[in-house]
Task: inverse folding
């Protein structure tokens, strides 16, 4: 088990504070399938998916299943509470379970539900570093990317400018806004 604390200088999440976005479960699964399709044929080939718990577990499961590769989990904690409109602190605690492979090769996909500032992907990438073969590549994928995210991810479906409440979270406000039907993967 590995724990690391990161304090990189990443972007600040932007919130219009109009009302949170709330994609449906169907939309999230469709977006995850688009993300999986976007990695088909990448070199080196995808050999594993690492879902960043908690939010990345469901999309990572869909992606790993579609690609037919093993799913692993990394636990990353960024927000101090589950309250809406929290600003990113840049402090991310990562815990890697002991059941991970001794060495990852090929392309390893890191998956989360949202890239708010970029700090979580950076922290998980750093924590996985000792487990990556010299030729291994990591790619980060998220359902959503906040407009304030300064680094990554490598692919995402929705740009957002407010808080997002995903279907696997509790407490969706009545005035939540839907996201459009997912139709393409965005990249930097």
Result:
């Amino acid at each position: 088990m590995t724990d690391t604390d990161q304090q990189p200088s990443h972007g600040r999440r932007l919130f219009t504070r109009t009302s949170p976005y709330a994609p449906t479960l169907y939309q999230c699964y469709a977006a995850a399938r688009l993300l999986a399709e976007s990695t088909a044929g990448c070199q080196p080939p995808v050999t594993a998916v690492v879902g960043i718990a908690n939010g990345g577990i469901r999309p990572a499961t869909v992606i790993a299943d579609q690609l037919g590769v093993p799913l692993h989990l990394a636990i990353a904690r960024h927000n101090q509470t589950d309250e809406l409109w929290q600003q990113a602190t840049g402090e991310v605690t990562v815990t890697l379970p002991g059941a991970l492979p001794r060495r990852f090769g090929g392309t390893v996909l890191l998956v989360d539900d949202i890239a708010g500032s970029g700090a979580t992907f950076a922290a998980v990438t750093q924590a996985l570093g000792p487990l990556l073969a010299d030729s291994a590549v990591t790619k980060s994928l998220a359902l959503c990317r906040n407009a304030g995210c300064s680094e990554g991810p490598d692919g995402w479906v929705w740009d957002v400018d407010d808080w997002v409440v995903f279907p696997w979270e509790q407490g969706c406000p009545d005035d939540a806004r839907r996201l459009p039907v997912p139709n393409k993967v965005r990249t930097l």
